[in-house]
Design goal:
The protein is 77% helix and 6% strand. It is built from 7 helices and 3 strands. Helix 2 crosses helix 5 (90-121) and helix 4 packs parallel to helix 6 (123-152).
Length: 184
Amino acid sequence: MDKRYAIGLLSRYIFLIILAIPNFYLIYLIANPLTIYPVFWALQALYGAKLLAGNIIFFKGYYAEIIGACIGGAAYYLLIILNLTTPMQVKTRIKSLLFIILSFLILNIVRILIFASLLKIGYQYFDITHELTWYFGSTVLVVIVWFANVLIFRIRNIPVYTDIRFLLNDISLKQDKLKNKIKK
């Protein structure tokens, strides 16, 4: 087995495990302020919003609490999993990670701002759209970001599958070499 590939493979999967401990703390540590403050600034410019208690925004008589589910820590983690379980060059990986994280961040901020506008327009629209995007839209958003990433960076490998195929091929080659040694 190519030692460089093996070290890269092992480090990618170890990083994924570390990133998930404890409960996506690192993801939320970074994503919370990157999501909350731009939303607040936009609502402040549009409606004169006030930021309360770090994650509660008051505007036009409404309180909007931006909770962990709004931030989308699991979605960020899924996108990072897709990136790190797909073999690619280091430069491509860094560009890809930046693209998927920034794309999701921007789309998520826009989504929250749309919900804030719906809240201002009428509560009845807010509930149904929030439910639909909670169950369906978030998955679609992650899929769109990932496939856009695949197209832009011309990624041809398949997450996890390509790594498993590589490991199985390597095992098969070693078994063939061992059989050839035994025959001699």
